[in-house]
């Protein structure tokens, strides 16, 4: 049991490392946000579909689940688009950290939507995450793009929290790769018309970063993340995943030379503290 718990913690950290590449890649890609997300989703769909066929996963879903999966796909699209706008308007640190209001949002929504027991500890840990974010965020000034970026990030966080809660019970029924196949298909279809707003050559010129977003960040990272839903409740997952912006900031520092300030390091320490505390708490429950 102990080794399984450690394995599950390692899995969610690896998933967060893969997903954290979205920050640097989102800043690096030189395409309109809807085009970037639409291309990313379609490429990820192809990769996931082929993988599911290779593994012989059953791609059929019950009719009664179609509405929930469709709604979760729309939420995923909203999350991706608003998140990438946050990245474009600020930097990796602000873009990624602003969406990590979602543990707080999740802590409030989970008892309501999934009828789980309200836990004060989750709110306290989420507050610790927010305190860490405070040290990384700039002063709020509605005349600069950073404030707008934070607003996009918080809205993205709401969509992400709601999507995770909506899919919680479906992960117990369907394989994570199958669910991500449908999610990427939905996002790809919704944003497909935007691909005709620019020259195909412009999109092709960015194929390396789009493939990285599709395979590394989406197909691998988000599928692994969905699979962790089987082992932890959604609020626990959301708090454990708060290590993601720390990974993202490190990747941004290495590849984009966006060196964090002293306050950024302090904020990262507070966020990591919440992850460590929740790791021990979830271990005791297991």
From TrEMBL:
Which keywords appear in this protein's UniProt record, sorted alphabetically?
Membrane, Transmembrane, Transmembrane helix
Q: TM segments?
A: 12-29, 35-54, 66-86, 92-113, 120-140, 146-166, 178-198, 210-229, 236-256, 262-280
Give the record's GO CC terms.
Answer: membrane
Domain (EamA) ranges:
14-136, 148-277
| InterPro entries in the record | EamA_dom, EmrE-like
The keyword Nucleotide-binding is annotated on this UniProt entry: no
Which Pfam families does the entry link to?
Answer: EamA
Q: Return the protein name.
A: Threonine/homoserine efflux transporter RhtA
